[in-house]
């Protein structure tokens, strides 16, 4: 297929993801997509890239790559309490096995898109020596109600969803959209765990101008044992769970664990059982 | 600089691009950017990638790369008659010379961003073996008024801005934002010339279900001569001029040339001085 044929095929597939009242006036096929916002809503925007050999291995099932490319962004929408509306997908890949790869990639991506009400409205396609994709997602949230990183206050309770340290580089991430939406008007701050608890908690505390005392971490049962397992949970990344704070006395949301308390202190300073827990999660440019 | 330091620096630089009343509630630094739409506006979304060795050469001045990465998207916003609002930028690059490259890239990008009222609100950064960047731009247009590809009707006059065939792979593109905005309510269809007149005119005609008869093309004075020069103007790409249609009798906008007429016929069929002009512009996946 040439580029025109691929775009025609995607148009048909994408139309199947359209939800009624989605606000999409025009999807794939013009210079831009056209979106009509609803009154009283703020819009959320996030983007995330995946590169062969950096974020995933060449042999990964393309349907999983497609799922993950969208899911990582939906996790950011979840962290702000948003409801996904649409996405744009940029893809570069080699010519060999291209048509089959593209079909499987979009099958994985569009399946999650349909399930979460995210319409594919545009993108860009190019040839390159390895696979690289970029997804941008727009979500919506009631005006002024988005969950942010910067609202945590001393005394707030610190929570995390799920169990940490699974190191899911290869699996299908399930973005915590319902949990995020349920935290609107309740959580004082929220962030998604993509780079590891120690780094993402540092970011939340730094943005809020507070410190945190962690006293327990819900560790996933995994392949590694003992200290290695705890290290994965603290610094491993790829959890895509939500880390959030609730005012003192608020009830614990289902499927979450209280892991500590927000305290006064140097912004970003975090302790685990009283000892300093420096940020050590994934940073693309840190010297290792 | 590590990733945290780079993001901090970008935050400061990006804030300088913020226009009053831009609608940006929260820019770089959280899981998502927050944007508050104005009532009565539709939003436009487009994305475009640039890859070292595919879209530009390794030795290109990074300030030009940054300018072009944004300008190519602004050209799409111009083609729909939009006013740019904000952008997200995804960047992957090798470690060597990284800090200097990033600074020059953003200097070029943010200079054009400031000039066009486009705020940088987010992005993503990764390490890779060569430079790749992706820009997503959001623009705004009065509700229901966006210029589209699909409104050309037989009898409409066909126009193009500027002169074609310069093959500006290396220079600073000037997106035709003012012209696009001035065509709102006047042009019946519009597209930007990124892949060459023959391919982009084919796309416009195909979307509108019409054919076109071209009788002249404004060729830029360039390095090549004679037939080669005309070929560049017809199929060369990288013009980033606007191609649009006006109802019969409408006055010619300044700085534009009438190149032909929309006619009844097989959708997408284009003739030049009576002879068929097949689409031959840039297609990443066409066999050559």
Task: Quickly list its features.
homodimer, 288 residues, alpha+beta, 60s Ribosomal Protein L30, Chain: A, Phosphoribosyl-aminoimidazole Synthetase, Chain A, domain 2, 2 domains, seven-stranded mixed beta sheet, 6 helices, 13 strands
Summarize the structure.
The first copy, chain A, has 288 residues and is an alpha+beta fold. Chain A has helices spanning 3-15, 62-79, 98-116, 177-182, 197-208, 226-235; strands at residues 24-26, 33-35, 41-51, 83-93, 119-127, 132-142, 157-161, 189-192, 211-214, 242-246, 256-263, 270-272, 275-276. β2 of chain A pairs antiparallel with β3 of chain B, so a sheet runs across the interface.
What does this structure look like?
Two copies of one chain form a homodimer. Chain A folds into two domains: 3-142, 60s Ribosomal Protein L30, Chain: A (2-Layer Sandwich); 157-275, PurM-like C-terminal domain (Phosphoribosyl-aminoimidazole Synthetase, Chain A, domain 2, Alpha-Beta Complex). Chain A has a seven-stranded mixed sheet, sandwiched between helices. A four-stranded mixed sheet of chain A has the order 3-6-4-5. In chain A, β1 (24-26) and β2 form a beta hairpin. By secondary structure, the first copy, chain A, is of the alpha+beta class. The model of chain A has no long low-confidence stretch (mean pLDDT 91). Chain A contains six helices and 13 strands. Chain A is globular, with a radius of gyration of 20 Å. In chain A, 27% of the residues lie in helices and 27% in strands. Chains A and B meet through α1, β2, β3, α2 and β4 of A and α1, β2, β3, α2 and β4 of B.
């Amino acid at each position: 297929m040439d580029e025109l044929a691929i775009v025609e095929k995607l148009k048909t597939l994408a139309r199947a993801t359209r939800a009624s009242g989605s606000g999409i006036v025009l999807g794939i096929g013009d210079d831009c997509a056209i979106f009509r916002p609803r009154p009283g809503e703020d819009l959320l925007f996030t983007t995330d890239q995946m590169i062969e050999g950096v974020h995933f291995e060449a042999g990964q099932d393309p349907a999983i790559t497609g799922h993950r490319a969208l899911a990582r962004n939906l996790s950011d929408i979840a962290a702000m309490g948003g409801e996904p509306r649409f996405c744009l997908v940029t893809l570069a890949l080699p010519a060999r096995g291209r048509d089959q790869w593209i079909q499987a990639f979009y099958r994985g991506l569009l399946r999650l898109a349909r399930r979460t009400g995210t319409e594919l409205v545009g993108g860009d396609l190019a040839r390159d020596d390895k696979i690289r994709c970029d997804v941008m997602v727009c979500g919506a949230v009631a005006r002024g109600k988005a969950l942010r990183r910067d609202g945590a206050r001393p005394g707030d309770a610190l929570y995390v969803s799920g169990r940490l340290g699974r190191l899911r580089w290869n699996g299908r991430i399930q973005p915590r959209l319902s949990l995020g939406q349920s935290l609107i008007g309740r959580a004082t701050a929220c962030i998604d765990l993509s780079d590891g608890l120690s780094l993402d908690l540092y970011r939340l505390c730094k943005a809020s101008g507070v410190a945190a005392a962690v006293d327990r971490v819900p560790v996933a049962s995994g392949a590694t044992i003992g200290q290695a397992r705890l290290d994965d949970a603290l610094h491993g990344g790829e959890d895509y769970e939500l880390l959030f704070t609730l005012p003192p006395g608020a009830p614990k949301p289902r499927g979450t664990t209280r892991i500590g308390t927000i305290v006064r202190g140097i912004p970003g300073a975090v302790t685990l059982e009283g000892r300093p827990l420096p940020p050590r999660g994934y940073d693309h440019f840190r010297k290792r």
